[in-house]
Amino acid sequence: MTMRNAEKCSIHVVTWNSHRHLPVLFRSIDIQDTSAFTVTVVDNASGDGTTEWLKQQRPDTVLLRNFRNLGFAKAHNQAITLALSRWNYENLESRYILITNPDLEFDESAIRLMMEYLDAHPDV
Predict the structure, then answer these.
(1) Can you give the pLDDT at residue 7?
(2) Tens of pLDDT along 105-114?
(3) Over the stretch 42-70, which tens digit does the pLDDT of each residue have?
(4) How far is it between the farthest Cα atoms of the chain?
């Protein structure tokens, strides 16, 4: 799979048997009023069809699959390391990582508004 160019924001989702939540999450991602982001999912050895759904329904989403459940923090650290490497560890003051859960639903302007706020308030 070819990864999209690294964007301004990298959205990270850690899953473990989260298949039932993914359609709502991804519908809310699809309606965002910005496209300056990529999505990475780290799956912690789900057995409920999560990875199969992602491969079929979201083939452009970066998917990291763990062979065992490494836990929330370690899985997010994997995604963070990937994002930083895709940005070549450069210009990080204007790049953002959004750590989220699979049972979340974004308002259509949430990601843009978060980035605008952080751009305007670099001390945050």
Answers:
(1) 86
(2) 999 999 999 9
(3) 999 999 999 999 999 999 999 999 999 99
(4) 42
Distance CA 63, CA 13 (A): 10
Q: What contacts 88, CB < 8 A, 6 or more positions away?
A: none
Comparing CA positions, the residue from 34, 33, 7 lying closest to residue 91 is 7
Q: What is the H or E stretch that residue 63 is in?
A: strand 62-66
What are 5's two structure tokens?
């160019």
Per the CB < 8 A criterion, the answer to whether 79 and 10 are in contact is yes
Q: Which of 119, 100, 95 is nearest to 14 (CA)?
A: 100
Under 8 Å between Cβ of 99 and 12: yes
